[in-house]
Amino acid sequence: SGKRKISPRIDILFPNLNTPKKNRKFAITLIKELNRKKRYKFRLLLTGEDEKLPLKKDEYEFVGEKKWGKEMNMLYRNSFITIIPSLSESCSLCSLESMSSGTPVIANNIYGISDYIKNNSNGYLISVNNLDAWVDKIFSLVEDPKEYTRIQQNARNTVIKEYNLKRMSKEYYSMWLRLFEKKNG
Length: 185
Description:
The chain is of the alpha/beta class. The chain has six helices and six strands. The protein has helices spanning 24-36, 70-78, 93-100, 131-143, 145-162, 165-184; strands at 9-14, 41-47, 60-64, 81-84, 105-107, 124-125. Strands 3-2-1-4-5-6 form a six-stranded parallel sheet, with helices on both faces. Strand 1 (9-14), helix 1 and strand 2 form a beta-alpha-beta unit.
């Protein structure tokens, strides 16, 4: 992971389906609030099908459906941060993919996501009830490249260490064995 160059426009990725649990309403409110401050120009990038949002045309872009792997990796890498304001989530693969790409994640502080994102270590956990804290954190990341790089490196290292293929294969194999034993026992 290398340093990100701050351009006049800062892209914030919100990989989502338009379902209430993903909390698109919060993402829209966040972009409006960030741009209201007029310090930088923020744009919300959304995956999926294009639809009209209650934002100015230059405040959002639907990037379409991206294939898992190279296409999504490039999208993560080209975004400044990924936001996961979900109201419920078991294990957000988008968070892990973003972390793997070296893109910091700010997520709602909920069970599931908090199992692998450690606040202020490899990402940030902030309640969606605290919009000001989200705004402050995003501005601090824009204005503090050392902090941004620290989180970026910690996020990537977490995925390499904890979610590598060898470790995950062993865990899945062990899980399947337990399920078969339970069913047959």
